[in-house]
């Protein structure tokens, strides 16, 4: 008759105490709730602990204690072992509960530190919103009238340098302009960060307006709204620690990317 606990640890009858300990250590690492992604990890962890506690506490059948091949082939369901099984299960549940509590304490500690970062994220993005809605500053370099605009291209943008600003336009935005020699060029920039948003050119008496396509106020402006929305959901709507941790990691990724965009353009 095979002991069901040997099967839990993946062992055969005749397993030594050393083999039981080795199997327990390996399986407990695999199914530990802190590291395992298995949906049933907690139940398996409890089962593994119960099996280990029972096999090491009860030991082999008394008739084979002196044998070179310990036999654990008794029926673990017999009433003689019920008390051992009950204690082993309680021990396993305590281990799983302690592991879960340690995990929650760690997550709370991480989220507590994240609160400061979150505040900085929100303040920075509100700052960007205010800066983009304040009246723009018009910059007109009269000394360079009649000059030719320096224009180059990248994989995604037409890059224009005028009045001391570099502006990334949507690729092909200036293709219809036959001449790059302008009579007047006015750059409209934000008040606080001095980021160019528009470029007005007068070429041969025709007025053209171009909009900044790249940067934090261009194509990537959606990051401002997304970050503020997720921050609001994180603070108001989410109570699960695991979900909060997932949102915190996502916000850190978005914010890092936003800072990279901010510094690049």
Approximate helicity band = 40-55%
Report the sheet with the most strands, covering strand number, pairing sense and barrel closure.
4 strands, antiparallel
Order of helical and strand elements: HHHHEEEEEEEHH
Overall radius of gyration: 34 Å
**Residue share in β-strands:** 15-25%
Specify the overall morphology. rod-shaped
Largest sheet, spatial ordering of strands: 1-5-6-7
Q: How many separate helices?
A: 6
Mean pLDDT comes to 83
Question: What report would you give on this structure?
Answer:
The chain has six helices and seven strands; from the N terminus they run ααααβββββββαα. With 265 residues, the protein is α+β, with helices and mostly antiparallel strands. Strands 1-5-6-7 form a four-stranded antiparallel β-sheet, with no helix packed on it. Strands 2-3-4 form a three-stranded antiparallel β-sheet, with no helix packed on it. The relative contact order is 0.09. The model has no long low-confidence stretch (mean pLDDT 83).
How is the topology of this model organized?
Layout (H helix, E strand, L loop, with lengths): L3 H5 L8 H14 L10 H18 L23 H52 L3 E4 L9 E4 L3 E6 L2 E6 L13 E6 L6 E8 L2 E6 L10 H15 L4 H24 L1
Antiparallel strand pairs: 1-5, 2-3, 3-4, 5-6, 6-7
Any key phrases for this structure?
265 residues; alpha+beta; four-stranded antiparallel β-sheet; three-stranded antiparallel β-sheet; 7 strands
